[in-house]
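User: Modeling request: complex.
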Amino acid sequence: MLRTLLPKLLVAGALGTLAATTATAHHGFSWAEAEQIELTGTITEISFAPPHPSMQVQAEDGVWTVELSNPGKTQRSGFVEGVANVGDAVTLIGNRSKDPEELRMKAVRVTVGNKTYDIYPERIETN
Amino acid sequence: MEWLEPLSQTLLARALILSPTLYLLMNAAHIMAIGVLFGTILSLDLRVLGMFPEVPLQSLAPFLSRMAAIGAIVAIFTGACLFSVRPHEYAQNPAFLTKLALVTLGVAHALAVHRGTGWRTIRAGGGASTKLRLSALLSIMIWTSAVIAGRWIGFL
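Assistant: Request completed. Predicted assembly structure:
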């Protein structure tokens, strides 16, 4: 019985994998455009939960998934729980996905109100 | 899966979210437990399949299976802690669900083997039966698949 169940499970897992549409966070920047963009919108979801803090931002062209850095690096930038909440206006600088259809970016700088958080200070190209 | 969300509000989940160091230590504990579980099971399975015949299976079997059980308990506990941080997300992750099914299957299979005559024979000093060897092969397949499914969680 067990020997017939295993292949079924593996097939189910493989099918599930194909059906999955959500992508988790990326390491590095190789998946993103080299040129940085500025994005303005409203936070609709925010999570500092490891392994990858992230937020959803409603912008003019749709809802963006904004990836931050790892929990430690994000925390050291000062961007921690409580400094930004759902409903807050946010301005982001970062690198967007190379896939033009995908509304996804990795933020290097987050601005909420008059506060600026440099998540990847060494990567910020503006100014 | 919304009903799982309160898990992320527990004291432990909150601590893991607020402290990246605590999270990485929990993560390391999870990896060590998997290392113990997989390493001891693989060693025992390979011995049952005929590798290192000079090592007595009679004393190896209870030692390695108990180590594997300890590894499994710690891995499941630390895994539950890591799960609590993003329960909603993991519960929708096909790789996570596959891993959970494979771990359940692996544990059930190990318990079934322990109740079988093949296991009793080796505990009494006898050799491994063909059925026990097949079980060893199946065990390697299940646990290897579980580790792969586990690693896949972050790549969907």
